[in-house]
Amino acid sequence: MVKEMPVYMDYSATTPCDERVVQEMLPYFTQYFGNTASRVHSFSWQAEAAVEQARERVARLLQVPAREVVFTSGATEACNLALRGHFRNVCSKRQSYYYHQNRAQSRFGYL
User: Fold this and answer.
1) Which letter does DSSP use for residue 94 in this model?
2) Mean pLDDT of the chain
3) What does the CA dihedral 91, 95, 96, 98 come to, rounded to 10 degrees?
4) Closest to 58 in 3D by CA, of 47, 67, 66
5) What's the rounded Cα separation, in Å, for the pair 56 and 64?
6) Helices (H) and strands (E) in the chain, counts
7) Residue 68 in contact with residue 50, Cβ under 8 Å?
8) pLDDT score at 110
9) What's the pLDDT at 1?
10) pLDDT digits 0-9 by tens, 9-61
11) Cα–Cα distance, 101 to 74 (Å, whole number)
12) 3-state SS class at 11
């Protein structure tokens, strides 16, 4: 007999966490709880080292440079960062396109 599980649709409130992640994070919930943005005490240095180690591990998994791995505090920040990067890329390509088009036209007397 198959036990039916309820459908949970509020993952904005909380999501299940893989047990391996819980085990890795446990020391940072109980012993090493410093703020990585603070640079004046050993708690923050330990937290910053842990974040950098995590960044390296994720970068290896994704096969990208570690500087390209960015951690955000939530979905809104992540979406805003992605959109900002996308539009910055689109705008720079558009500006480059118009610059080269105008330059070519002025060189050949079109302007």
Assistant:
1) H
2) 82
3) 140
4) 66
5) 9
6) 3, 0
7) no
8) 47
9) 66
10) 777 777 788 999 999 999 988 888 888 888 888 888 888 999 999 999 999 99
11) 41
12) coil
**Rounded CA gap, 13 and 64, in Å?**
31
* Tokens 């047990």 -> residue: 19
Q: 79, 69 in Cβ contact below 8 A?
A: no
Type and span of the H or E element at 32? none
Question: Quick check: 92 pLDDT over 80?
Answer: no
The residue behind tokens 């923050």 is 44
In this prediction the pTM is 0.62
Contact (CB, 8 A) for 54 and 66: no
**Is the distance from CB of 51 to CB of 70 less than 8 angstroms?**
no
* Structure tokens that stand for 6 in this block: 């309820």
